[in-house]
Design goal:
The complex is a heterodimer. Chain A is mainly α. Helix content of chain A is about 90%, strand content about 0%. In chain A, helix 2 runs antiparallel to helix 3. Chain A is elongated. In chain B, the strands form 2 sheets. In chain B, strands 1, 2, 3, 4 and 5 form a 5-stranded antiparallel β-sheet that branches. In chain B, strands 7-8-6-9 form a 4-stranded antiparallel β-sheet, with helices on one face. In chain B, strand 2 and strand 3 form a beta hairpin. In chain B, about 30% of the residues are buried. The chains are: A mainly alpha, B alpha+beta.
């Protein structure tokens, strides 16, 4: 019975497993503290070189710092 | 709310000195030393909360440490570390870890932490160069040009992937050349380039340099700038707080109150 259930449910479970892996990978990149810090340095540079406005810079910085807060909560 | 002490860094100082109203939180709290056994923890009064990572707070933390670096070798403490009172700092931090802090202070003393970031000034020019150099990319492009626009969606995705891969390779080669040229002048280095996201970014490096190697480092950096010319923009920060090389982690308590701003 259980083997039959597994066989019947395998495609669904497979998709769910894949979705979980994608989610894990996305979270890993989104909340990687080192990556966020590198990105903070990048947007600073974009602002210093005039490629983004102060408003854009501050907004991006705020978003990145929010992610850094989450990253550090998870540590 | 309960009042405690926000911790910034460890320095070699025997007296209870003060360093001005630079405390975190915008209240004008004085930076003060809590000394013990020839070392001191630099602190300011603060509510016992968890400070959210945001510009105002991180800049306050960083500015305090940067100011002290002008006078002392410093061991930066992790952001948002708060003690209940001075006695806790002496008994739980300075006394038990005295030998460790002393060793680290002597290790870091006199050394300069330098951050080197490089990026392409004109990334479109880099794309054009990649296209010129890559026969496979030229073939892909020719293939797309020969088809009606509506039929080229997946081809354009393939071109995008190919360009990204070539850009990553070029970034890696350029970053490696910069690192290989500069690292002989440093006693330690950190390469954060793998974490870079933007297309124009090349490298994000940190170096810890002894005083005797500073001239050589500067000369090599000058040579790199001259060799690469205008296509590469450099951002070099000197006298950076040495967070990349030493950050003191102190676990005193779990704080549940989070700063509102």
């Amino acid at each position: 019975m259980f083997l039959l259930d597994d066989l019947l449910l395998a495609p669904v479970k497979g998709i769910m497993w894949l979705a979980e892996q994608v989610q894990k990978e996305a979270n890993g990149q989104l909340f990687d503290a080192a990556a966020i810090k590198a990105r903070l340095a990048e947007i600073q540079e974009l602002y210093d070189s005039g490629m983004i406005s102060e408003t854009e810079f501050l907004k991006a910085e705020e978003n990145l710092m929010a992610r850094l807060n989450v990253a550090q909560e998870r540590e | 709310m309960e009042e405690g002490r926000y911790l910034y860094c460890i320095i070699e100082e025997a007296e209870a000195k003060t360093f001005g109203p630079l405390g975190i939180g915008g209240r004008g709290d004085e930076l003060v030393c809590v000394p013990s056994g020839g070392l001191a923890c630099v602190v300011s009064s603060s509510p016992i909360i968890k400070y959210r990572i945001m510009r105002e707070h991180t800049m306050a933390h960083y500015r305090a440490i940067e100011m002290l670096m002008g006078k002392y070798a410093v061991l930066p403490i992790r952001f948002s570390t708060i003690a209940e009172n001075d006695q806790e700092i002496v008994e739980q931090v300075l006394k038990p870890r005295h030998a460790e802090f002393q060793r680290l202070l002597h290790w870091i003393a006199g050394k300069e932490s330098v951050e080197v970031r490089a990026s392409w000034s004109n990334v479109d020019a880099v794309y054009q160069e990649l296209l010129r150099e890559s026969h496979s990319l030229q073939a892909l492009k020719a293939n797309v040009s020969a088809k009606p626009a509506a039929a080229t969606y997946y081809d354009r995705i393939e071109i995008g992937k190919a360009v990204q891969a070539l850009l990553r390779e070029k970034r890696g080669r350029t970053a490696a050349k910069i690192l290989d040229a500069l690292k002989p002048h440093a006693c330690e280095f950190r390469d954060n380039s793998q974490k870079l996201y933007a297309d124009q970014s090349i490298c994000y490096l940190a170096f810890l340099i002894e005083p005797s190697k500073t001239t050589g480092f500067d000369q090599t950096l000058g040579q790199l700038r001259a060799a690469h010319g205008a296509p590469i923009r450099w951002n070099v920060k000197r006298q950076v707080a040495p967070f990349d090389f030493v950050t003191i982690v102190i676990n005193l308590r779990e704080v549940s109150h989070v700063s509102a701003g």
